[in-house]
Amino acid sequence: MLSFTSRLVEKAVEQFATLPGIGRKTALRFVLHVLRQDKASVETFLAAIRQLKELIHECKRCHNIADGETCDICADPRRDATTICVVENIQDVISIESTGQFKGVYHVLGGIISPMDGVGPGDLHVDTLLQRVTAQPAREVIFALGATIEGDTTAYYIYKKLPRRDDLVVTTLAKGIAVGNDLEYIDELTLGRSIVNRIRFSL
Amino acid sequence: MLSFTSRLVEKAVEQFATLPGIGRKTALRFVLHVLRQDKASVETFLAAIRQLKELIHECKRCHNIADGETCDICADPRRDATTICVVENIQDVISIESTGQFKGVYHVLGGIISPMDGVGPGDLHVDTLLQRVTAQPAREVIFALGATIEGDTTAYYIYKKLPRRDDLVVTTLAKGIAVGNDLEYIDELTLGRSIVNRIRFSL
């Protein structure tokens, strides 16, 4: 049990320990770091977090985080607005953006259908997705959801609601072996999928 | 390379990533956590850190962190003020306090003699220690410094400056095998010390 000898330190440790994955020992390291910093640096730190909380918007089109009314991706004319990638949350947007492989736009559902957690279709941004698909006719909807029962359920639910149009393609992420993985460590389901959905070999 | 699509998020990630041991991926998890929290929780978080920085004092007696003029330990009449434990920094005070095994008081040097890092005796709170030892005659000075060349140098330097009094005992932390350790994993120096400084067996 850590003994801090200061209420101020103890309160700051408690607060840092609310961050995900941070215990009291690491929180104490953060506190000692803050005590060593000059005042201006700590002010910059606090201001960045306060502004994050106070100034951040939700993009009115795709529900991504946004600095203004629409997010940088929706506002970018170089992005293909007819290819909509459906994701669970903003973390997934960041993950896909970080690959640099996608030039379309996103739609953030804000969750995933999960009866166990009490999350139903009504809790997700499905209606606005359907409006988008129709308003500016989308050519492709990509389900970039987790390879879980909840992900499949959510994709299936939305798929049934999408308009049946010959010029609308609905796709999902490829399942297969991870790049760099040896075959022996891959579970049977994934390996099976990767054989069934094998792709043309190219160099 | 993470792509955040929001300057506010990016700035907050950068700031969290200044914390020791925190990379941009973990910083992003903190940012997403902050975005999920309600406003009051985030305010509490920010206030604890601001107050830590603005209200913390240095104990005028022992240089430990203090909420007021003197720290909780120096202000506690149940602590033995004639037994002074000399440590490098406030982290060491917290470590020793957390053992619950010490009932004396501390003296925080604020560093350790290290010519390589440009830290000399003049940079440490040695003078105030000598004053304390004399002003209220101390009966024991304990060197609780790291088992390093710097720690030994610092202890030796202070030892030479301490008054030669028959009623003043100068001690240092026991070096030996860590509790729970098997002998085969212990370095020769430590094992050698633990044999030379062996103690009476007791149950």
Overview of the structural elements:
2 copies of one chain form a homodimer. With 203 residues, chain A is of the alpha/beta class. The first copy, chain A, folds into 2 domains: 7-55, RecR Domain 1 (Helicase, Ruva Protein, domain 3), CATH 1.10.8; 78-172, Dna Topoisomerase Vi A Subunit, Chain: A, domain 2, CATH 3.40.1360.10. Chain A is 42% helix and 12% strand. Chain A has 8 helices and 6 strands. In chain A, strands 4-3-5-6 form a 4-stranded parallel sheet. In chain A, strand 5 (140-143), helix 7 (149-161) and strand 6 (169-172) form a beta-alpha-beta unit. Chain A is globular and about 70 Å long. Chain A starts with 6 loop residues before the first helix and ends in a 7-residue tail after the last helix. At the A-B interface, helix 1, helix 2, helix 3, strand 2 and helix 5 of A face helix 1, helix 2, helix 3, strand 2 and helix 5 of B.
Report the mean per-residue pLDDT of chain A as an integer: 91
Question: Which sequence of SSEs, written as H and E, runs from N to C of chain A?
Answer: HHHEEHEHEHEHEH
Q: What is the CATH topology descriptor of the largest domain in chain A?
A: Dna Topoisomerase Vi A Subunit, Chain: A, domain 2
Query: Which stretches of chain A of 5+ consecutive residues score pLDDT under 50?
Result: none
Q: Given the structure, what is the number of helices of chain A? A: 8
Walk across the major sheet of chain A and give the strand order. 4-3-5-6
> Approximately what portion of the residues of chain A adopt beta-strand conformation?
5-15%
Helicity level of chain A, as a percent range?
Answer: 40-55%
